Amino acid sequence: MFLQTDDQTIEDLRLFAKKEQKGIYDIYNNAATRGGELLLEKMFRNPLSDLEAITERSGIIGSFAKMRTIFPFQPAILDSVEKYLSQDQEQRDGQKSTLGEREMANGIAAIIELLHALHSFLEKGDITKVSGLKRESIAMINLLNDPGLEPAFKEKPGSKLSYAAITAFDILFRVKERTRITTALNFIYQLDVYIAVGAVANKRDFTFPLARPKGSNLLKIEGVYHPELNSPVPNSLHMHAGKSVVFLTGANMAGKSTFLRSYSTAVYIAHMGFPVAAASVEFSVMDGIYTTINLPDNLGIGASHFYAEVLRVKKVATELGAGKSLFILFDELFRGTNVKDAHEGTVAITHAFAGKGTSMFIISSHIVEAGDELKQKRNIAFHYLPTRMKGTVPEYTYTLEEGITDDRHGMIIIRNEGILETLKNGKKN
């Protein structure tokens, strides 16, 4: 079972690189193989929504991290295997194979060496201490012990093969036993991801999340920070059934969007069973996660920013109406309309969200006046990111506090930048 999400959320969380900016995927991508990189991307696009699957994957990665396992296969060998096997696909697609006799010999030698290395790792490597891979390990040993692959294990890795042997192995590997070879290769890619992510956890001191059953209404994240920041300020937020909605306020530049990305990224990554940039994470497994941080206008259908927001809320409402348990985040709800409508809409929608007790919501807003009406609901909590004034210069702690702020420093910043003076007197050299 996979966690429901969408392209908007993936874009909001900056999971993948865009233009010159790297993504969260790049932080975790320590894979040694191209196949491992592709599998990691697939995992990023398909987080899990099953307690057992999340716990199992987290346990496997954690085991390799604890042992500080090194990827036991040479990437160059895997490159040769991939290049060799790809020729069969080219031929099936009607293209002429470009594989020469030497490349064929290298590919066959690489498969023989790889099969021996995999067999050795399964019998004597760190994988023998990983309980979460016991079933897959047994299946893989049985695959390698199949009589069809026996000729490969009769050969010593690195030994020179005759032309007749190369021809025979070519038919064996690329035709008769191709499925088994591909299965073994995919298992190695899986190991690549597990070992690589475990190494990232050690290097960055990420924590492994603790998943709880669906419906337990818990989202407790301590010391969360954004993994792309060089000097992040960690924050903690504990959500539960009695505090299922958080109304977040704070002046511009106080760090709201960064906190929202940090927290929602942690929720997303935790559902992948991956280690998270936080001190600790304990969460109820959910059905889906939807964020709205940078919602673009939909010019293709002539939709304004406000209408795009309305459609986004409608989509979320439809998913909630189906009885799903969701994590929902809106950064500055209804920013695309006038203050009066935004006020009324924010209060109405947040009140409605508060009635969905099996889901979790974070709503940020500049409309601090809405807080007075929202206090009627006992499960709505209020947090803010403060601004401290040092004379006429605002300073930001980036540390979450309880309550509602009325910090308004927009005009101070405008004056500090000398904009009004420039407009009045012109630019001075």
Write a brief caption for the model.
The protein is of the alpha/beta class and 429 residues long.
How can the largest sheet be summarized?
Answer: 6 strands, mixed
**Distance linking N and C termini:** 63 Å
CATH class of the largest domain: Alpha Beta
Quick one: overall form?
elongated
Low-confidence stretches: 89-96
According to CATH, the fold-level topology of the largest domain is Rossmann fold
Helix content: 40-55%
**What is the CATH homology-level superfamily of the largest domain?**
P-loop containing nucleotide triphosphate hydrolases
Oligomer description: single chain
Approximately how much beta-strand content do the residues carry?
Answer: 5-15%
Average pLDDT reading: 91
What is the domain total for the residues? 2
